[in-house]
Design goal:
333 residues, alpha/beta, Glucose Oxidase, domain 1, 9-stranded mixed sheet, 15 strands, 25% helix
Length: 333
């Protein structure tokens, strides 16, 4: 039976947004277009959701500070069947409409040699490869998370908040929010926003409650759609998390937010801010973001076991000054 969802106090921005949105939109999260938010409202949200200084003025780990030793032990206790599932797509070298900058794998040893060696070149940010963002990846009005200035980014990398600051990795409780399953469809259509009301509806459906330090993974069915229709581009329109869902995630103290797309719904319905969910999440909240993960096998496993929570783990490649890292996240039931 579902557990009672715990009460949380949302920031004033979220309450105002709930009152302004049309009732069917906010209640059901099924509108064809995301709610429209002005640049001035993004300013308010940025201030209200800020974690600047929460863990010290020199903090470069952001919401990973929410993953305590007790949280890791809670996550480890979720392992019952010992079933592990990769949440990464294979990195592909063939160019396609959904892989405009394919990975280059260059063999560096002749075929007759007793060993095989290779060299990789990859542009991992974007809408193709499974990766995580460092906290120096997004800036708003020339400032990154915790107030670090845009001048900290140089040709050689980020002098503050590079991915090496997250090299201890992530091990926490993961929760899959399967939005297509919630809505009774195979996948979400382009431009479909995932709203706070969808997240809360999934909690009621599964009896789970998002807790402090959790890794929240939002499935849109992006890869199921590719299986059904073939490669397609997300550049002009994509399902994704609308920026108006962030106050709920801040109230729950989520540590990591991952999607199978580039996080943001597109079009975003936000004036003047190109990727508002990314921008507010990273630069204001210090929230760790995972893009382009693969949740198809995870969704099938969770449905078969009747369990939507699991132990989640990943380790980034600690490139000094790096703006992110390719990753292979693992969910273990």
């Amino acid at each position: 039976m579902p557990n009672a969802t715990r009460q949380v106090r949302l920031p004033a921005f979220a309450i105002a947004l709930a009152l302004l949105l049309p009732a069917p939109l906010f209640a059901q999260g099924s509108a064809a277009l995301p709610p429209t938010i002005s640049a001035a409202e993004i300013d308010v949200m940025f201030r209200e959701l800020s974690n600047w200084g929460r863990w010290g003025d020199d903090d470069m780990r952001g919401t990973l500070n929410l993953i305590t030793p007790e949280k890791r032990k809670q996550a480890a206790a979720l392992v019952q069947e010992g079933i592990s599932v990769s949440l990464s797509k294979n990195y592909e070298t063939e160019q396609a409409v959904d892989n405009v900058s394919p990975m280059q794998v260059i063999m560096t040893i002749p075929p007759a040699a007793p060993v095989a060696m290779d060299e990789w070149r990859i542009f991992y940010h974007g809408l193709t490869y499974t990766h995580m963002d460092a906290l120096c990846h997004a800036y708003y009005k020339d400032q990154a998370y915790n107030g670090f200035p845009v001048t900290d980014v140089h040709e050689s990398g980020c002098t503050t908040s590079g991915i090496e600051n997250l090299k201890d990795g992530i091990l926490s409780r993961g929760i899959l929010i399967d939005v297509p399953r919630l809505k009774g469809v195979d996948y979400l259509e382009p431009g479909t926003p995932v709203l706070a009301s969808d997240i809360e509806a999934w909690e009621r459906e599964t009896g789970l409650t998002i807790q402090s330090g959790d890794v929240v993974l939002v499935r849109t069915g992006r890869w199921a759609k590719k299986t059904a229709i073939g490669p397609y581009s997300l550049m002009t329109a994509s399902p994704g998390v609308h920026v108006s869902a962030l106050p709920l995630l801040k109230a729950r103290d989520v540590a990591v937010l991952g999607t199978d797309v580039g996080l943001d719904v597109s079009p975003s319905g936000v004036e003047e801010v190109v990727i508002p969910t990314h921008t507010v999440a990273i630069a204001s909240m210090g929230l760790i973001i995972i893009d382009n993960a693969s949740f198809e096998e995870l969704a099938e496993t969770a449905a078969r076991l009747g369990r939507w929570e699991f132990m989640f783990q990943l380790s980034p490649i600690p490139v000094a000054g790096g703006t992110g890292s390719i990753i292979n996240p693992i969910a273990t039931f």
